[in-house]
Fold these 3 entries.
Entry 1:
Amino acid sequence: MIRERGIALIEMIVVGFAVVLMVLPVIAMTARVVDATASVHAAARDAAVWVARHDHQPPAPEGISVSVVRRQGSVRVVASDDVVLIGVGGTNISRTVRSEIEVPVSPFRSNP
């Protein structure tokens, strides 16, 4: 009876450890995507507001590609970045995160 309890305890520990090993990478990937999405959205918003106020290219954010399209009365900015979700055996699984922002042109632009 005691031996069976010991074996059951060992099985529970092994199964619990296996579950943790499978769940932690999923949580890490989700956190990376959420962080990258927030960074890309902030970069797009900042660039759109900069162009709408100053009418010239904003300073380039680090590691994020930003493209600006000026239209009549508005500015549209598309920002994107590649985020590495997980690396397995020398290969990386990545995803492109993209954000689009459109803001109206400010009537109170700075004139340099």
Entry 2:
Amino acid sequence: MEVKIASIKGYNIFYDTSDKRFELRNEDGEVVGQGKTQEEVEKQAELLSKKQFSPITAFMKYDMDLASGRVTSLNLDEQTVWFVPD
């Protein structure tokens, strides 16, 4: 059984009573972090919220062209990035 405990920095914290762990979920309901304590997942939410607003300067190759821009988000599961050209 899962119980919603709190919301922090745009993420929801759930407690899974069967696994006895806390889960951090994004607004789409995807698990983006977990831990044994609520404090652990609150720290993860803090770090994730900071990462969201720290774009990375990057270069991307399109066919024979090279574009400069920023990577604004990263999906580790699908190994993709969101690239915004300048």
Entry 3:
Amino acid sequence: MNHFKWIATQNCIRFYKRTYTLNHDISQALIDALSDLGMLEQFNFSEYSPSSKDLFKIKLDLELEISGTLSDTYLQVTVSRNNPEILALIEKKINQWSTLLA
């Protein structure tokens, strides 16, 4: 069972671009699991403004970009069409993380 829904946000010859709607808010545990796939960058805006949310981005050269907001349910994913298996891996990690929360 999938713990998310996704829509293709843009048709492109070189990339798959998807927006995932998760059943749970994004937590640091999910970010840590996904960070195995590339370089993690976190923007801790809440340190400077308590009403702001923290953002993250995970990149791997021109192959992968994952971005989202901590405590939000949306995750944006861009994956090179040369490596569609990365999408399956991302979805597996989301399901594993979501199962732990259930």
